[in-house]
């Protein structure tokens, strides 16, 4: 319930910090460096994780170059703008820091607490949490007014939406900066309330959870996907779960069950499936055609329960 933020209050972003170097975080780094063309620094728990993230970014820049989307000079410039480190003190001059670490409030509070010790008092902090309370994540900060929710969607390069989440503490500078950064990334920032699952995951969790229940009730997975197709969405529910990752999807389910136990169902089988390396079989076009043998076993035990 706020009006449009005043763009004039937005902070100029000259260096971006990314906490986490997993697939999601590495996709952000690539997007930030391509669209803002400012230095982007990326960190994680250890050097191996950081190196993996940086290698992914370099390889994606190489692919864009091969496709003719980037010329050699620009590709080299972008590579040079990305820097991986395990030394948090290198974040000191970042004016926009976003985290994409494990979806656990305590972990997010901890990483922001560490970063807050080194960054400027007015640097903006953003969390990519997909369903946790942004206010709670910021509750341990010395300056919670600088924290904003900034939730991307998979695949980051192509999905046009960013859910921008304001807490009761978020100040106008943080909110305005979030909207301007989203626009400069070529995305549509949409303001959402700081409520579990915000808007999109609240809806998707329902779709994914009910799709799983349809299977447990005996409808084969490929038939669920087929039944969904005429609705005109780009992917069936199981293809979508596979895209975002079963662990992430299971985690979102849990958050929604905790928040709204009267509207969402606990789904233990989802967690069992998420433990497998591969859950679904796909055809050449990427459409889900069945479960893997290991997944089929779990699902069979769930049918009728
Ligand atoms: N990474 C980067 N780029 C990708 C990509 C990926 N994984 N998958 C596709 N693309 C790019 C392609 O390179 C192509 O780009 P180009 O037009 O510039 O060449 C473009 O996307 C379109 O790709 P395709 O033509 O191959 O494929 P489709 O037309 O089938 O589109 C899709 C692919 C955009 C992924 C589409 O299927 C889609 O929109 N799916 C739904 C995705 C969705 O709903 N995401 C939200 C998930 S929820 C979430 O992330 C929240 C989290 O908190 C859980």
From TrEMBL:
Residues 197-283 form the 3-hydroxyacyl-CoA dehydrogenase C-terminal domain. It comes from Microbacterium mitrae. This is 3-hydroxyacyl-CoA dehydrogenase. One of its GO terms (biological process) is fatty acid beta-oxidation. GO terms for molecular function: enoyl-CoA hydratase activity; long-chain (3S)-3-hydroxyacyl-CoA dehydrogenase (NAD+) activity; NAD+ binding. Keywords: Fatty acid metabolism, Lipid degradation, Lipid metabolism, Lyase, Multifunctional enzyme, NAD, Oxidoreductase. Residues 15-194 form the 3-hydroxyacyl-CoA dehydrogenase NAD binding domain. In the central section; belongs to the 3-hydroxyacyl-CoA dehydrogenase family.
